Amino acid sequence: MEIKIHRTYHKQGTNGRLEIDGKPFCFTIELPWKENESQISCIPEGTYPLAKRFKVERGHHLLVQEVKGRSLILIHPANNALNELRGCIAPVSTLTGAGRGESSRAVFLPLVKLVNAALDKEEAVTLVIVKSE
Length: 133
Prior knowledge:
Strand content: over 45%
Oligomer: single chain
Number of helices: 2
Mean pLDDT: 96
Shape: globular
Number of domains: 1
Number of strands: 10
Low-confidence stretches: none
Strand order of the largest sheet: 6-5-4-10-1-2-3-7
Radius of gyration: 13 Å
């Protein structure tokens, strides 16, 4: 399974269009690009394997692996990148501004279900991040 995010960069946040195997699925929000600085920047464009992650306090998430110079980059629900993210990626139903969206949980839960089903079948799940054209 390939999950692809087409990013658009803004001063207050990064917006994306997420596709699964070439089909539109949802939008994403992230922090603005600040040279991959931990806690304040989105991660670099590139290709990353995804894995399951579960914490009792927060439930299921997706872990973005092999991010150079970074760790614990997650895909989890959030509606405001500057207030709720520290380098992670949040799926949203609609975009409302730079790094802002709505109804994150409504698309996060189906996304996790799809990815986890693929991983349970031992399929590779890859996240590809590119600049939007």
